[in-house]
Amino acid sequence: MLTASMQQRTPASWTERIAERGSPAEPVSDQAVDPATGVAYALISRTRTPVRGPYVLECTALRNGVVRKGPVLPVGHLAVASGYLWVYGAAGGGPQPRVSQVDPRTLELIRPVHLPAVPARTYPAVAVAAGPGGSVWIGSFRALLRVDAATGAVLARVRLPTGLAVSDISVDPGRGHLYVSAAHLVNGGIEGNEVFEYDARSGRRLAVAASGLITDSVAGAALTAVPGGVWASFRTGMLGLTIHLRQTDLAVIVPPGLGIAQTPATGIFHWPMYATTVYGGGALWLANQTGIVACLNPRTGKVRAAERVAQARSIYQLLAADPVLGQVFAVGARGLVQISPPRRCWAAPSTKAPGTAAGTLVRTGGPAPGPPVPLPGRVVAIGSAGARFTTGVGTNGRFRLSLLPGKYRLTGYSSQVGRTARGLVGR
């Protein structure tokens, strides 16, 4: 049952629409959604019971359901980060990690990312997160690499302390802080957990949480970085916790606070079996095995709205939140779904006067330096808090966006080029 505080914030219903119905004939290993382009990506295993690959990459246009097939890949995890797809994992159940960069428009392989070899009889997690300046952070075993998405060059390297291995990584929306959950290596397996905070550009270590509630994890933690800190979800056995760690010192923030493990495992922060979180639109979104779906203030943990859904509508994985559409994308019992939560879930709009970002989307001509060639298409502005604004671009390449005060990263999309163009605008 919902607590009294949750009941006060619970609407009649969080409406839900099936974007792509799941099929037992196509076992999905992993999925990702890019709300800016309206495309869903999936890795479909050619083997079943168990799902072990190889995997066919597919993309589906959510507007009309048109499906395109891409290459066959040996690994089964997928992420959208810094304008590209990243397919990663360990092939064939072996220990050696693999990461491939894929063009999200053409589904063509761009390049492999070479990771350090890991010891035999080890099954390391691999994790990918968008970094600053058009880069990505990749974590595998004891290695953390910051990679330039445009060139594949390694911009920074970090090595975890001896005896630890990467469980998950996440970078805050302002792209200033990298958070890493790391499990202890014990007799070929993993157990326990610590959390590290690094400078997202240089990789300089800023803080570590190596004691307290975060160490109650059975093995590692799933992370979602937000402005001012990071949320960590982890199993303690058959039960689990979602807690909030503060930026700069990784102290536990209330709520949920240190006493959350003493509460019944039927709520938002203390749950059985699993929980999933994602950040977007100025909110932390959370779902867990009890059927709870909720939106929270990401800095304070205060619940803005929550609902407990029936088992037939269970949410297994939250993928992305799009404040422009007012929707949250998730994998649920019925397939890929689009959830329309209450308006109060989204961050309140700024009362400051909006500004304008104007420019031209161009392709640099050749041979270098060559004249710039205007491109038609669209430009997407993504704010540091996750807000997205989109505008169309005509054949002259010119665009104009009305934006609330803040810092935004602009990404241009055009059918006439295979890659995206990027820029940064400030206050």
Kindly describe this structure.
This protein has 427 residues and is mainly beta. It has 1 helix and 36 strands. The protein folds into 2 domains: 13-345, YVTN repeat-like/Quinoprotein amine dehydrogenase (Methylamine Dehydrogenase, Chain H, 7 Propeller); 355-425, Sandwich (Immunoglobulin-like), CATH 2.60.40. The strands form 10 sheets. A 4-stranded antiparallel β-sheet has the order 1-28-27-26, with no helix packed on it. The protein has a 4-stranded antiparallel β-sheet with strand order 2-3-4-5, with no helix packed on it. Strands 6-7-8-9 form a 4-stranded antiparallel β-sheet, with no helix packed on it. Residues 1-12 and 419-427 have low confidence and may be disordered.
Secondary-structure blueprint:
Blueprint: H1 4-8, E1 15-21, E2 28-34, E3 39-45, E4 55-61, E5 67-73, E6 77-81, E7 84-90, E8 97-102, E9 109-113, E10 126-130, E11 135-140, E12 143-148, E13 154-159, E14 164-171, E15 177-186, E16 189-199, E17 205-209, E18 222-226, E19 229-235, E20 239-246, E21 270-272, E22 275-280, E23 283-288, E24 292-296, E25 303-308, E26 315-322, E27 327-332, E28 335-340, E29 355-360, E30 362-364, E31 372-374, E32 377-383, E33 388-393, E34 398-403, E35 408-413, E36 421-425
Antiparallel strand pairs: 1-28, 2-3, 3-4, 4-5, 6-7, 7-8, 8-9, 10-11, 11-12, 12-13, 14-15, 15-16, 16-17, 18-19, 19-20, 20-21, 22-23, 23-24, 24-25, 26-27, 27-28, 29-34, 30-31, 32-33, 32-35, 35-36
